[in-house]
């Protein structure tokens, strides 16, 4: 009698958990099947579209600059120049947003070169902006400036 009741209880428990399982499966499936085509599409169009087109249009100098920027600057300034590199939360003041057209147009190329060469300390800005004089050649700093200029352009 006892064992019969136990098996019955057990089978009810099993049934309920099976039901729950299949429900959650269904949810998971329907969620992912409805979400994945969209997210793949948007990821594709936002990544391959403008980004790919932009990198095709880079000049030789800008491509060199991009390489150097990605290697040395993106940790703080962000891949896309928005001042949101993964190290930026440590920084106060934050690296500024290179995509801000108005802000960037106030900088002459000479001033940009100087800031990068001498670092924040050399131009009365935050000493957390390192000096690149020792690491990058003059022409390399110019490449980086060519590349940074692109962030504030829409094309
Ligand atoms: C350790 C983090 C860090 C790295 C790496 C770094 N920067 Fe900076 N940079 C900063 C900070 C912080 C500022 C903001 C200084 C301020 O506003 O006082 C800054 C400011 C600048 C500015 C001046 C813009 C402004 O708003 O005044 C330029 C240009 C610049 N960085 C270029 C570069 C380039 C090019 C590289 C790579 C070669 C680089 N930075 C690497 C932290 C960094």
Explain this structure.
The structure is a single chain. The chain has 155 residues and is mainly alpha-helical. The chain has two domains: 1-57; 58-151, Cytochrome Bc1 Complex, Chain D, domain 2 (Orthogonal Bundle), CATH 1.10.760.10. It has helices spanning 2-56, 60-77, 101-105, 109-122, 138-151. α4 crosses α5 (138-151). The structure holds heme C. Heme C binds next to α2 and α4.
Strand content: under 5%
Quick one: biggest sheet?
A: none
CATH architecture of the largest domain: Orthogonal Bundle
Distance between termini?
80 Å
Bound molecules: heme C
Rg value: 27 Å
Give the number of helices. Answer: 5
- CATH-defined superfamily of the largest domain: Cytochrome c-like domain
CATH topology label of the largest domain: Cytochrome Bc1 Complex, Chain D, domain 2
> What portion of residues is helical?
55-70%
- Mean of all residue-level pLDDT scores: 79
- Count of the domains: 2
Outline, from the CA principal axes? elongated
Order of helices and strands: HHHHH
- Low-confidence parts, pLDDT < 50 over ≥5 residues? 26-47
Name of the level-1 CATH class of the largest domain = Mainly Alpha
* Class from helix and strand fractions: mainly alpha
Number of strands: 0
Tell me briefly what this model is.
By secondary structure, this protein is mainly α. It has five helices and no strands.
What brief labels describe this structure?
155 residues; mainly alpha; Cytochrome Bc1 Complex, Chain D, domain 2; 2 domains; 5 helices
Please describe the topology of this protein:
Elements: H1 2-56, H2 60-77, H3 101-105, H4 109-122, H5 138-151
Helix pairs in contact: 2-5, 4-5
Bound molecules: heme C (HEC).
